[in-house]
Amino acid sequence: MALNKRNQSKRSNILVFTEALLIAYMGYISHFILTQVGLSAQVSVEKLMINVAMLTVSILICSLSVGLYEAKLRETFRGIIRRIFVSAGLSYFLVEILSRAFFDKLVMDSYFLPAAVGSIIITLVIFRYFTHRLGLLGLGKVRIVVLGAGERASIIEKRMRRDVDRIGFELVGFIPIPGDNREDGIRKEKIIHAKVDESFLRFILENDIEEIVIACDQRRGTLPVEVLFDCRLRGIEVTELLDFMERETGQIVVNLMYPSWVIYSNGFQSQNYLRDALDYTLNVVLAFLILLFVWPFMLFTALFIYLDDGWRTGTSVFYKQERVGLNGQLFKIIKFRSMRPDAEKDGAKWASKDDDRVTRIGHFIRKYRIDELPQLLNIFKGEMAFIGPRPERPQFVEQLVREVPYYNQRHNVKPGLAGWAQLNYPYGASVEDSMEKLKFDLYYVKHQSLLLDILILIRTVEIVLFGKGR
C-alpha cells in the first residue's frame, strides 16, 4: 500500500509540474500574440514574469482546492472541465484583485488576463482529455476488485471487454460470493478465491486495491458489511455495480436497477436553473441560426423527393407522424419523406438497417440526417429540443412500457433531434435495441446539463459531416 501511495504521489507531482509549465507558457504566449496583433504594448521581462508567476501559482492553488490534483479523483471528464473552469475563474479574480490592490505598477493591459485565462482553460482541457481519457501518467487509473462472480458481475465482462473500456481502471479480478449464480456468471475473467472475512482487509492492502465494486447476486446474509466498513475507514472506495457502470460506460444498466438505488441516487432532477429557464429560448435561437444555413438544402431536398416519386404518386414530400413527447403528450413530428408512400400499408413496423421501403433519395438523406431538418419546426413550436431522447411512436411505446422496465422515465424530458443514445447506440429496430438505448437515455435524463448538450451537439455534427448516420 505504501508503494501504491508513493506512485500516486509521484503521478500527482508530475501532473502539477506539467500543468505549471503549460500555464506559464500560455501566459507568455498570450502576451506575445497580443503584442504581435497590436492589442498590447511590449512590457519588461520582469513585469511579464511576475504576472505569469502570479497567474500560475493562483491557478495551481485553486486547482488544488477544487480537487484537480487529488490522486483518487473519480470524476467524469465533464466534471473535470467544470473544475478547470471554476479554478481558472477564481484565479482570474484573485490575480485581478491582488495586482490592483498591492502591485499597481505591475498591472498588465486589460487584454492580457482574459486572453491568458481563456487560452489556459483550453490548454488544460485538452491536456486533461489525454491524461484522463487515454490514461497518460496513469492518472485516474485505479486498481479494483469486484465482489461477486455471478450474473450481476458478468455485466462487466460483457460490457467492458475491450482495453479501451478499461482505461480508467485496472481490474485485479472477481471474488465469488455465496449465492452467486455461477452458471450465468464470469467466464473468461480472473477469479480470485479469497475469503471475505477478517483477513480480507489484509488481502486488499497487500494487493494495493483502491476500489471494491459490489456486484454479488445475493446481498442479504452474504455481504460482509463489517469488513467493507473497515475498508472504507482505510480510504478504500466501495462502489455499487450500477454506479460503477454508470461512471465508466455512460449508461444506466436498466435491467439491474432496483427502486432503492433510484431513490438514493443523485440526479434525475436538473439542478441547472439557468439552463431550465432559458431552455425554449436557447433552442429557438439555435434552430433559427441553423435554419439560416440549411434552408437551401431543405429546398433542394423537397424538390428531389418530388421529382423522384412525389409528382407521380401525389404524395407530400413531408412525412407527419404521431410521436410521444414530454410527459407522454402526443405531437406530430415532421420529417422529409424517405420511404415509399405505401411503406406502412400493413401497419406500423420497426425500421430496419437495409429497409427496402426506403427510396433512392431516402437512403442519402437518412445517411446525412437531412430527413430530420423539418423538425426545426417542432422546436419552434416547443414540442422538441435539440438534445434529448428520440421520440417514439405511441404504438411502440405501449409495447415498450410493458416489456422494458422504467421506459416511461425517458419522457421526463423533451424529445430531441439528437441524443446521447444515438451517439452510443445508433441503431434500434427491436425491443432489445430499445432496452439498450434506454440505458443511455436514462443516463442523459439523470445527467442533463448544458455541457453534456454541447458535447452531444459536437459529436452529432461530426456524424452528419462524415455520413456516419444510418
From TrEMBL:
Keywords: Membrane, Transferase, Transmembrane, Transmembrane helix. The chain crosses the membrane at residues 12-33, 48-68, 80-99, 111-131, 280-307. It is a multi-pass membrane protein. It comes from Alteromonas australica. One of its GO terms (cellular component) is membrane. It comes from the Bacteria. Residues 282-465 form the Bacterial sugar transferase domain. It holds the Pfam family Bac_transf. GO terms for molecular function: phosphotransferase activity, for other substituted phosphate groups. It is found in: Membrane. This is Sugar transferase. Belongs to the bacterial sugar transferase family.
